[in-house]
């Protein structure tokens, strides 16, 4: 193979961030899970660990994501639906009961309330006797993509950015092995972007976070090694492999040339991949197993550090245990039976792959130049430029499906009479139990201590000091997600889409 391609583990890391890649260490096999109450989710986590999952990935319900307690009027009907309900430290204690946090890597998909959930997690670890410096995992903490593609924002852009940089600084001291952000292209792709747009808008967001941290006084090499990314594995097999290779090269050059990073770790793009939920179909759900396997193989050939495989029934409901197990077995087959782990960057050197890698890189750089000309990422979001680009791509995709130009098996071609499959059903009684438990927490804690800690948090928010110590203090007093978010809302206000 030509030396011009470079080698795995060497700048600009096109061929992988480690010299040996999976020959020395497999990717972390995660299964995204969380539903109902903490008790129910704890049982699912322990099951997944028993089946060979090597990292946990926590889904939170919408009230938790939006800074509302389970008994908030707007939470009715949403408690525990798309993830686990966490209203206070008491819930987090139950969520990880019997799971040694010092031995498990945990990823938490949480953004607007990431600081609060990180505080709860750290406090549970302390109760277990685990040192914070030994904890490994990730909080998503990527608020910009919420304004672009997902919508679970609370605060205006600039105070939201302050919270993120405060997490960078605090965790850099207290939890040095923790990934303080997972900058997400996944949701951008799920909203309908192209592969090029997924990378371009993800890196535009990364630039905004890095610039904010540098402006807050942090040296780039002090926090950049703990930045991580989250990408989508879609169905165009060769394009997806090339996308991941291009992403590493773009990021390495960006960090070295734009931000002057000196530490090699600051230039190494480390990323988690999830297979594409938007490609799953309610029609012929067993076919989704095939889609997921192909997408997962693209992620592995592209050099992912962590991977979640979607379950066959997720277009219909939360996954059953059987479906989650098949999804995990898909990863295990790729790792243990296919042989692709025996060679770093096995697709490297292919004419098609290298041409696609170059083409994607060029397309991404054109977008980044355009965003710079518009005044940067925040301006591009505030003016709706990024959102409009994604919407136009989503429309073009859907039109191609409707006209038959793009084939979706089982949807517009190769249809058949459907048969029902077993699906997961969430017990509606769980919402009542969660609300009752929250009321018990409020009744048993020290109201005076909670008020004192919340007052201190509000005072900190009105100043310029780091918010995290005050959030941790309030969390330790069993202040709820809604109470902590409410005090910050009172100072920062709420974002309203223009």
What is this structure's SSE topology?
Blueprint: E1 28-33, H1 38-50, E2 55-59, H2 62-65, H3 89-95, E3 105-109, H4 114-127, E4 137-139, H5 144-150, H6 157-174, E5 178-179, E6 181-184, H7 186-190, H8 195-215, H9 220-223, E7 227-233, H10 237-258, E8 271-275, H11 287-301, E9 306-308, H12 321-337, H13 351-374, H14 377-382, H15 385-403, H16 429-444, H17 447-462, H18 468-476, H19 481-492
Parallel strand pairs: 1-2, 1-9, 2-3, 3-4, 4-5, 6-7, 7-8, 8-9
Largest sheet: 9 strands, parallel
Structural class: alpha/beta
Order of helices and strands: EHEHHEHEHHEEHHHEHEHEHHHHHHHH
User: Kindly state the mean pLDDT as a whole number?
Assistant: 95
| Low-confidence segments | none
What can you see in these coordinates?
The chain has a nine-stranded parallel sheet with strand order 5-4-3-2-1-9-8-7-6. The model has no long low-confidence stretch (mean pLDDT 95). Helix 4 (114-127) packs across helix 18. By secondary structure, the chain is α/β, with parallel strands linked by helices. The chain contains 19 helices and nine strands.
Notable traits:
single chain, 498 residues, alpha/beta, TIM Barrel, nine-stranded parallel sheet, 9 strands
């Amino acid at each position: 193979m030509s030396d011009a391609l470079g080698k795995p583990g060497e700048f600009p890391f096109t061929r992988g961030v480690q010299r040996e890649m999976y020959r020395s260490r497999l990717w972390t096999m995660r299964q995204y899970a969380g539903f109902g109450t903490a008790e129910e989710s704890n049982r699912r986590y322990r099951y997944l660990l028993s089946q060979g999952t090597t990292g946990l990935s926590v889904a939170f319900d919408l009230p938790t994501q939006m800074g509302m307690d389970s008994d908030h009027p707007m939470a009715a009907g949403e408690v525990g639906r798309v993830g686990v309900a966490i209203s206070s430290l008491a819930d987090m204690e139950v969520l990880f009961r019997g799971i040694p946090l010092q031995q498990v890597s945990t990823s938490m998909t949480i953004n607007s309330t990431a600081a609060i959930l990180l505080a709860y997690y750290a406090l549970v670890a302390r109760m277990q006797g685990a040192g914070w410096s030994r904890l490994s995992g990730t909080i998503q903490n990527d608020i910009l993509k919420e304004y672009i593609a997902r919508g679970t924002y609370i605060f205006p852009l600039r105070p939201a950015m302050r919270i993120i940089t405060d997490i960078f600084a605090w965790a850099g001291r207290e939890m040095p092995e923790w990934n303080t952000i997972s900058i997400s292209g996944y949701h951008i792709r799920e909203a309908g972007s192209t592969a090029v747009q997924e990378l371009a808008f993800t890196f535009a967001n990364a630039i905004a976070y890095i610039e904010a941290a540098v402006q807050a006084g942090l040296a780039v090499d002090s926090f950049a090694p703990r930045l991580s990314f989250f990408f989508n594995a879609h169905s165009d097999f060769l394009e997806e492999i090339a996308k991941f290779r291009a992403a590493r090269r773009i990021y390495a050059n960006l960090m070295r040339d734009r931000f002057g990073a000196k530490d090699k770790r600051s230039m190494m793009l480390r990323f988690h991949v999830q297979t594409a939920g938007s490609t799953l179909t309610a029609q012929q759900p067993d076919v989704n197993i095939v889609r997921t396997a192909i997408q997962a193989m693209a992620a592995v050939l592209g050099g992912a550090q962590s991977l979640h495989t979607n379950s066959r029934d997720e277009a219909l409901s939360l996954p059953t245990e059987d479906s989650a197990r098949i999804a995990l077995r898909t990863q295990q087959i790729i790792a243990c039976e296919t042989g692709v782990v025996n060679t770093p960057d096995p697709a490297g050197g292919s004419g098609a792959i290298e041409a696609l890698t170059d083409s994607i890189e060029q397309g991404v750089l054109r977008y980044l130049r355009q965003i710079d000309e518009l005044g940067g990422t925040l301006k591009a979001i505030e003016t709706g430029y990024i959102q409009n680009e994604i919407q136009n791509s989503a429309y073009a995709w859907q039109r191609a499906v409707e006209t038959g130009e793009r084939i979706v098996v089982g949807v517009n071609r190769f249809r058949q009479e459907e048969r029902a499959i077993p699906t997961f059903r969430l017990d509606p009684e769980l919402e009542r139990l969660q609300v009752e438990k929250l009321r018990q927490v409020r009744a048993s804690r020290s109201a005076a201590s909670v008020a004192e800690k919340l007052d201190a948090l509000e005072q900190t928010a009105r100043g310029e000091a780091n918010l995290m110590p005050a959030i941790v203090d309030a969390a330790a007093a069993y202040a709820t997600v809604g109470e902590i978010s409410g005090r910050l809302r009172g100072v920062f206000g709420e974002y309203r889409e223009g």
